[in-house]
Specification:
Strand order of the largest sheet: 1-2
Radius of gyration: 24 Å
Helix content: 55-70%
Number of strands: 2
Strand content: under 5%
Number of domains: 3
Distance between the termini: 28 Å
Structural class: mainly alpha
Amino acid sequence: MTASELVLRGRIQGDLALVERARESARDAVEWCAIAEALPRERAGDALARALALAGADVRVYRNVARIESTRFENVAAAKRALAAGAEALLAHGGATLDWCALADAWRAAGDADAALHYLEHARASAETVADWCAVGELARAEASARTVGERTRVVQACDAAQDLARVVANLVAAVPAIATVEEAVVVAGLLGHYEQDATPAFAAGAALARSPGEFIALARVASSDGECQRWLERGAAEGDEAMRGLAEHIARARGLRGGTDEPAEPLVMPHDMLPRSVRTLGWPHEPAALLDRLRAAMSPATLDAIASGDYGQDHAEHLAALEEIQRTGGVRHPLPWFPLEVLQLERWAEGDAVDHLARAFACTVLCIDDAGPLRWHDGNESTMAVLLHSAIALGTEAVEDVIGLFAAMANAYRDDELRAFAELGLVLAAVWRDATDPRIAPLVIRLIHDEARLREQSTRWSERWLLGITNFDLRHELWRALARAILAPSVGHDPQLTRLAELLR
C-alpha cells in the first residue's frame, strides 16, 4: 500500500496509525506534506522537514509547508522560515517569474507585505515573456509583446481575471490575424463565442488552413450552424480513415444531425480526438491521454488477464483482446463495445484492502474517456470519477498530476452540464490534494457552486444534497463525501472557498 493510500485511509477513518505507517513508503515532498497535515503538531515536524528536504526548486512545496505551519499549527515564524528556504532555493536555481510570484503570494498570506513586495520585485526583474508580464500585472507590456495565439490567450486570461471585458475582446480580435493552425482557430473561435462575440473571422482562418480529416472534424465542433457542422463532418468522413469516419458519425448523432437505426461500428479513437480542448478550463492542463498512457505502460499481462476474467471468466478471450488493443495503441473504441465494457464496469467497483489500484484506475480511465466522448452510455460515471480519484491518489503524486489533466479535459469535452460539474468537482479535489495553495482552485470552486445552483433549478432533484442530489447514480456518493472530508479538512476555517465547498458536501 502506497504512502498516499495510507494517508487517505487514515484521514477518512481517523486512524493515525495508518498515517504513521505511511512514513515507511513516502517517496516525495507531496506525500510528506500529506502526512504532516494528518498528524498532530508534536508528530508532524519531521514530516515537514522531510518535505522541505525533497522540495528542490518546487515553490509549491515551500508554500504548502508554510500553509500547514501557519494555518494548522499557528506557527507563523516556522512558515516564514519555510518561505525563506524557498527563496534561497529559487535564487540558487534561477527562479522563474511565476515562481517568484507564487512565493510573493505566500509571503502576503503569511502577513508580511514587505517581503511580498520584495519578492514581487524579483518577479518583475526576471520577467521576459508574455506569461511573465501577465503574472506581474503588467498587462500593457504583455499586450505589446504578444505575437502568437498562445500569448494572446494568456493575456485574455489575465484580462478576464481583472474583469476587463473590453480588453478581453480587443485581444481576441488581435489574435485572429495570428492564427497559424486549425487548433488555434478552434481555440479563438471558442473564446469569441464564449464572450458572445462574432467568431466568423476565426472560423474562416481555420477553414483556410484545414487540410486533414481531423482538422475538418475539429472545425465542425465549433461551426456556428448545424448545416456548417454537417458539411465539415462529411468532409472529414469522406477523406478520413475508419476512426475519423466513426468519430464524425458519432458527433453527428450526438448533435442530432443524423438519424437512422443502424449503429455505426465503434472506431478506435485517440483520446485527444475524442476530448477536444475548449475554453471551459483555460489555465488547467488539457491532457486526456496522459493518465491512460502512464497506466497502460505499467500494466502487466497478468493484470490485464485478471481484468478480462472479471465476469467469472466468461468471454475471457474477447475481453482480453480488446484490453490488449487499448494497452497497445492508447486508443479507445467509441462508444465502448461490450468487449471490454462489461469487465471494465465490473473492475471499477473493486474495493477493500486488496484492491489493485492500477487495474481499477485503468478501468475507470477508459470508462471516463469514453463517457466524455460524443456519445454516452449514461452509465453513472459520476461514481466512476470518485473511484478514479481515489485510485489516482493511492497510486501517488504523478497519477494525481495526470488525473488533473484528465478531469480538465473531460470538463472541456462534456456537453452534459451535470457530468461536467462532477468532473470539475474531481478536478478541485485532485488539485487540493496536490497543492492546496494553487490560485486556480478558488475561481473554479466559485463557478462550480454557481453552476450547481443553476443545475438544481433545471434538473430532476433526487435528494437535497448539494450536487450529489441531482443524479440518481448514487453507488459512490459516500466515497465522494469521504474524499471531500479527507481532502478539504485541512483547509476548513482557513480558505473561505474550500470551507464553503466542504460545508456543502458534508
